[in-house]
Amino acid sequence: MSSSSSKLVLGLSCSITIGIVSYVHLKQQADREKMHEGVVRDMERQQKRKIENLYLLEKQNELTKKLKRELGS
């Protein structure tokens, strides 16, 4: 009886260990994917901001040229 109960305990311990290791591995993988998605979103946000800033700069340049023409006349 001792032999079969020790085999049962060993099998149960191995199963639990494999389950824990698998869970941790999958959790780390999911966390990495979330972090990568955050980086991609940040890059997209930076690109949008850059485009908006270029648009505002161009608009400001046009207004400056218009003001110089008006003052020069």
Automatic annotation (TrEMBL):
Family: Belongs to the PET117 family.
Gene Ontology CC entries for this record: mitochondrion
A Pfam family recorded for this sequence: PET117
Protein's name according to its UniProt entry: PET117 polypeptide
Keywords: Membrane, Mitochondrion, Transit peptide, Transmembrane, Transmembrane helix
Gene Ontology BP annotations: mitochondrial respiratory chain complex IV assembly
Main location: mitochondrion
Subcellular locations according to the entry: Mitochondrion
Domain of life: Eukaryota
Parts of the chain that traverse the membrane: 6-26
